[in-house]
Design brief:
With 82 residues, the protein is α+β, with helices and mostly antiparallel strands. The protein is 39% helix and 13% strand. It contains four helices and two strands; from the N terminus they run ααββαα. It has a two-stranded antiparallel sheet with strand order 1-2. The longest helix is centred in the first third of the chain and has 12 residues. The radius of gyration is 13 Å and the shape is elongated.
Length: 82
Amino acid sequence: MIDQLIENLRRELGITSVVVTHDLHSALAIGTHIMMIDGGKVVENAKPEDFIKSTNETVKRFLESQYITRRGAWEKGMEKHV
């Protein structure tokens, strides 16, 4: 419900939101950019479709821990970002 609210605000009112979450499925669904911070440092900042292709080992481990592969069910909503 929150993801839909954020998406509606962006689409209907042009509002930009900064969402801090550990829920990568949500971030990939609603984000136009994904920034990952590890140990206080930015390790990746990319569009969702590029984030999941990251070669950064920290990002790759996080993706695996979230059961996200380079091709997953979350991609069904990606056409809005391409």
